[in-house]
Design goal:
Blueprint (H helix, E strand, L loop, with lengths): L1 H6 L1 H26 L21 H4 L1
Length: about 60
C-alpha cells in the first residue's frame, strides 16, 4: 500500500490541489449569490434569460 502511495504521490497531490481550487471557486460563487451578485458578472437587463433565474421582485 505504501509503495502504491509513493508511486502515485504526484497524482494524489495534484488531485488534492485541484479539489481545493474547485471548492474555493464554488464557495466564492455561493457567497456572491448570497450577496446578490450575478454569476456572469453583468446585469440582468440585457440577459436573454431575464426573469428565469430571479423573481420579478428581485429586479425592482
Amino acid at each position: 500500500m505504501l509503495a502504491w502511495i509513493m508511486g502515485n504521490l504526484a497524482t494524489i497531490l495534484i488531485c488534492i490541489i485541484l479539489a481545493a481550487v474547485v471548492a474555493l471557486i464554488i464557495t466564492g460563487v455561493v457567497k456572491g449569490k448570497k450577496k446578490g451578485r450575478s454569476s456572469c458578472g453583468c446585469g440582468c437587463s440585457n440577459c436573454p434569460m431575464n426573469g428565469s433565474c430571479h423573481s420579478h421582485s428581485d429586479h425592482l
